[in-house]
TrEMBL record, chain A:
CDD domains: RNase_PH_RRP46. The lineage of its organism: Eukaryota, Fungi, Fungi incertae sedis, Zoopagomycota, Zoopagomycotina. Its main location: nucleus. Belongs to the RNase PH family. GO terms for cellular component: cytoplasmic exosome (RNase complex); nuclear exosome (RNase complex); nucleolus. This is Exosome component Rrp46. Residues 11-131, 135-196 form the Exoribonuclease phosphorolytic domain. SUPFAM superfamilies: Ribonuclease PH domain 2-like, Ribosomal protein S5 domain 2-like.
Automatic annotation (TrEMBL), chain B:
It holds the Pfam family Rrp40_N. This is Ribosomal RNA-processing protein 40. It comes from Thamnocephalis sphaerospora. PANTHER family: EXOSOME COMPLEX COMPONENT RRP40, PNAS-3 RELATED. It is found in: Cytoplasm; Nucleus, Nucleolus. Residues 27-65 form the Exosome complex exonuclease Rrp40 N-terminal domain.
TrEMBL record, chain C:
Its main location: cytoplasm. GO terms for biological process: exonucleolytic trimming to generate mature 3'-end of 5.8S rRNA from tricistronic rRNA transcript (SSU-rRNA, 5.8S rRNA, LSU-rRNA); nuclear mRNA surveillance; nuclear polyadenylation-dependent rRNA catabolic process; rRNA catabolic process; TRAMP-dependent tRNA surveillance pathway; U1 snRNA 3'-end processing; U4 snRNA 3'-end processing; U5 snRNA 3'-end processing. It holds the Pfam family RNase_PH. It comes from the Eukaryota. Keywords: Cytoplasm, Exosome, Nucleus, Ribonucleoprotein, Ribosomal protein, RNA-binding, rRNA processing. This is Exosome complex component RRP45. GO terms for molecular function: mRNA 3'-UTR AU-rich region binding. The keyword Ribosomal protein applies. Belongs to the RNase PH family. InterPro entries: ExoRNase_PH_dom1, ExoRNase_PH_dom2, ExoRNase_PH_dom2_sf, Exosome_comp_Rrp42_subfam, PNPase/RNase_PH_dom_sf, Ribosomal_Su5_D2-typ_SF, Rrp45. GO terms for cellular component: cytoplasmic exosome (RNase complex); nuclear exosome (RNase complex); nucleolus; ribosome. Residues 33-164, 190-265 form the Exoribonuclease phosphorolytic domain.
Length: 223, 232, 298
């Protein structure tokens, strides 16, 4: 059954990315799934305050800000996700006693905002030229009241969903680096979501490559 | 295939592919590559480059934040003066140390007098992730200043590190195009800072704008300079 | 959190030398404002404005709340601005910097206290239900003159915003979804625009007849860091002065103030037209949906 916006259940919305979107930040990317857009800025390695300095590794400081209102519980949850994914990707040992600031700003939320935020974070870390172990790619899905798995749900689909899931996979082993689920679901359903999101993540990784090729061409590195 | 776009985490095959290459030579990994157990991994996204004969491999990419590397020229700003040394901001995570003796002809009695806030052109003489970087204003092999030292007057602009590398290449298009119309001198740091000075205020502004705006322009440098000249 | 150092001696001296010749280091003349770009949508009330490289996003939203007991017929209007490390690595979250306080206060004065939004029109049911409109301002890139850029973003967001339509029958209030009925624009009394100036001392008695007097409009980040004084003039399209703020800095002769007001009035009218045009162009295209500006992230 096609969805309201004409997509099939496993089809994702068109991805978009503006790399180097901000002048001041060391790395910045605006990533979007359709109308859902998140901006992420990365600064680092920069000087760390004494109390957060770690002798053997860089400290990661993540901030997430919603577009409307002050950061609440949900924003803190997304912030923690950004922190986890950034720490998992960064080779922090190569820049000891420094700080890497990751600031994500929701620009518009039309569903799957967490996945868009994590992808913006991954691309911004890459844009900043920081040493990375791997680049993660996140995809969200929702299980509709009828039990159908909808990949990359819209805000409307999220609202009436029975459960929501976000998975992130890295590009080397294709293994899961992040997973968050809410709602009521069975183990089989979770496994089905995992497989669908993993297939989606491969598309996100392919998108990263196209985006990087374009950036290198614009900078005159690739002829 | 030696030239391709790689994402962080991807493995790179650095094994010998041709019989002409001396397999006993060690493999040298440049920026963006790292050895992880038996494999070589990319840690940065960019274009993989290689000199297969010399077994050198590196990744070409652009960024804005400077991480000090040995021997690179940098433009720094003096942030504090101490008895034996200056603390210099070079745009990295930690401020660098410049010994008062690391100048041409400096002795205990005759040492340079540089004010806080002054700009200097120096060479990175120590770069280690666990230590504060150190600078020197002389070439260690000859003991001569060779252009390093305090940068007086002029103006400073910032640009991406990749653009700075391009400016340092001999015959950089924008500098050649500018040089046909305006006399100027400049000091390009690998840390994304360019100090420049021309014979008059309008010419300095023109040079600064031309260099800033030439980022991302590779063929139309002459047109850009002409356009800016008309605006004066 | 990296520290920001004072500009170098070379930069300071060159900026001042250039100003003596009536020139600015980015190639502008003293009264040039950097290029302004306005992006609106996709949701109602979402605006992103760039002023040169300075970039600010503003998002207007509305919720239904109970009015304050002393003002039962009035809706509420709130402004919220926080400088995150996105704008500049030197900003810390959770601790208001001096700059943040200053920008917030000028914005409050310019938009809220000049009563730009007609709060009485936001009343749904006296003493029971009113609209609370809030605008969240997000500074994305800080390259100087945040105040002017943020005001433009807030004004654009307010003009672009549509709140859901309501019907009141007796005590019953129905809030219509965007699909049911066309949403309603906000009633604005006037459109305030801030124009900021930076002043530079030359150590000599000011000579106002000279074309190279030390005053620049729309200061860049470098000029802001080097300035001896600043002033922000808020004007509207009726050529009225709405607010004027000068927080310390070098003293100014009265005629200099008057000149700034005149300059601001002219420039303010240009900017208002620019924003109006951008809003008109987009509103005819905007499709409803996508959250419609009602808070989802709470």
């Amino acid at each position: 059954m096609p969805r309201k916006d004409g997509r099939t259940t496993t089809q994702m919305r068109a991805m978009s990315a503006t790399q180097g979107a901000l002048e001041r930040a060391d790395g910045s990317v605006r990533f979007g799934f359709g109308d859902t857009q998140t901006m992420c800025a990365v600064n680092g390695p920069v000087e760390a305050r004494l109390r957060e300095e770690q002798l053997d590794r860089a400290t990661v400081e993540a901030v997430y800000r919603p577009i409307i209102g002050l950061p609440g519980v949900r924003a803190k949850e997304i912030e923690a996700a950004v922190q986890t994914v950034a720490e998992a990707s960064l080779l922090a040992g190569l820049h000891p006693r420094t700080l890497v600031q990751v600031t994500a700003q929701c620009m518009s939320d039309a569903g799957s905002s967490v996945a868009a935020t994590l992808n913006a974070t991954a691309m911004a870390l890459m844009d900043a030229g920081l040493p990375l172990r791997a680049v993660p790619a996140a995809v969200a899905c929702a299980i509709s009241p009828e039990g159908e798995v909808l990949v990359d749900p819209t805000a409307e689909e999220e609202q009436c969903a029975r459960s929501q899931h976000v998975f992130a996979f890295d590009n080397t082993s294709q293994e899961m680096v992040f997973c968050a689920s809410t709602g009521k679901f069975t183990a089989e359903e979770l496994a089905a979501c995992h497989d669908l999101c993993r297939a989606g993540a491969a598309k996100v990784h392919a998108f990263y490559r196209v985006a990087l090729e374009r950036k290198l061409a614009e900078e005159g590195i690739v002829a | 295939m030696t030239r391709r776009v790689v994402l962080p985490g991807e493995t790179v095959d650095v094994s010998v592919t041709s019989e002409d290459i001396d397999a006993t030579q060690p493999v040298r990994l440049g920026p963006g590559l790292r050895q992880a157990e038996a494999e070589v991994c990319a840690v940065r996204g960019g274009q993989l480059q290689a000199q297969p004969e010399a077994r050198r491999w590196w990744i070409e990419s652009n960024k804005k934040r400077y991480v000090p590397a040995l021997g690179e020229p940098v433009v720094g700003q003096v942030i504090s003066r101490h008895a034996e040394e200056y603390k210099v901001d070079i745009g990295g995570a930690h401020s660098a140390v410049l010994q008062a003796m690391a100048f041409e002809g400096a002795t205990k009695k005759n040492r340079p007098n540089i004010k806080v806030g002054a700009l200097i052109y120096a060479r990175v003489s120590l770069a280690d992730k666990d230590m504060e970087p150190e600078l020197e204003c002389l070439n260690p092999t000859t003991g001569r200043s060779e252009g390093y030292g305090e940068l007086k007057d002029g103006f400073m602009i910032t640009c991406s590190l990749g653009h700075c590398r391009r400016l340092l290449r001999p015959g950089a298009a924008i500098l050649r195009a500018l040089g046909q119309h305006v006399p100027f001198e400049l000091a390009v740091g690998m840390n994304g800072r360019v100090w420049l000075r021309a014979d008059s205020v309008p010419h300095t502004i023109l040079t600064a704008n031309a260099i800033t705006r030439s980022e991302g322009i590779y063929h139309a440098c002459r047109r850009l300079v002409k356009q800016l000249l008309q605006q004066i | 959190m990296p520290k920001e150092f004072e500009p170098s001696i070379s930069e300071r001296e060159f900026v001042q030398a250039a100003l003596l010749e009536g020139k600015r280091v980015d190639g502008r003349t003293p009264y040039d404002v950097r290029a302004i770009e306005i992006h609106l949508g996709p949701e109602y009330g979402a605006a992103e404005v760039t002023l040169g490289k300075t970039r600010v996003a503003a998002r207007a939203s509305a919720t239904v709340v109970r009015p304050f007991p002393d003002r039962p017929n009035e809706g509420q209007f709130m402004l919220n601005l926080e400088l995150s490390p996105m704008a500049s690595a030197t900003f810390e979250t959770g601790r208001a910097s001096e700059e943040e306080v200053l920008v917030t206060r000028v914005l409050e004065k310019a938009i809220r206290q000049s009563r730009a939004v007609d709060t009485e029109s936001l009343c749904i049911l006296a003493g029971e239900k009113v609209w609370s409109v809030r605008v969240d301002v997000h500074v994305l890139d800080h390259h100087g003159n945040l105040i002017d850029c943020a005001t433009m973003a807030v004004v654009a967001a307010l003009l672009h915003f549509r709140r859901p339509d309501v019907t009141v029958i007796g005590e019953d209030v129905t809030i219509h979804t965007l699909e049911e009925r066309n949403p309603v624009p906000l009633a604005l009394h006037h459109i305030p625009i801030c124009i900021s100036f930076a002043f530079f001392e030359d150590g000599q008695p000011a000579n106002h007849s000279c074309p190279c007097d030390r005053l620049v409009m729309d200061p860049s980040r470098l000029e802001e860091r080097l300035q001896d004084g600043d002033m922000t003039v808020t004007v509207n399209t009726h050529r009225e002065l709405c607010a004027l703020s000068k927080a310390g800095g070098s003293p100014l002769p009265p005629d200099q103030v008057m000149r700034c007001v005149q300059l601001a009035a002219t420039k303010g009218a240009e900017i208002t037209n620019l924003i109006r045009k951008a809003v008109q162009d987009t509103t005819s295209r905007t499709r409803p949906g996508g959250g419609g500006g009602i808070g989802l992230d709470r």
